[in-house]
């Protein structure tokens, strides 16, 4: 896990941030549940990037938020699957031929397309229940915090 954090997560997160216009020294935080197989806190810091752990016994708070996002992902995936199937069938092919064309690669691409179809607002609202006082804003006036992009709020985004 430590190798993954240093060699994969941090470089990929840096590429994502630079590709979206963030400064090179932007802070990166990976938040994990308090599981013993995850990184040890001493090893989980690299430059401006670190790992935070949920306190013990709070993982049960997360599943209701996951369920909303997973439900949306499944709906998007099914919608894409049926659109593809109908297009295939309207082209004169059989259902058996359509199913023969499906494999792990096409399933992964379909899942990625479905993930891209989940609205950003849904993701923000799902996270709001976890950190109900901290959400992202573009307006950063009067913000007294160490994290660029965070601002205190009492209502959902």
UniProtKB/TrEMBL annotation:
GO cellular component, one term: nucleus
GO molecular function terms listed in the Swiss-Prot or TrEMBL record: DNA binding
Domain of life: Eukaryota
InterPro entries: CenT-Element_Derived (IPR050863), DDE_SF_endonuclease_dom (IPR004875)
Residue span, DDE-1 domain: 1-124
Regions annotated as coiled coil: none
Name of the molecule in the record: DDE-1 domain-containing protein
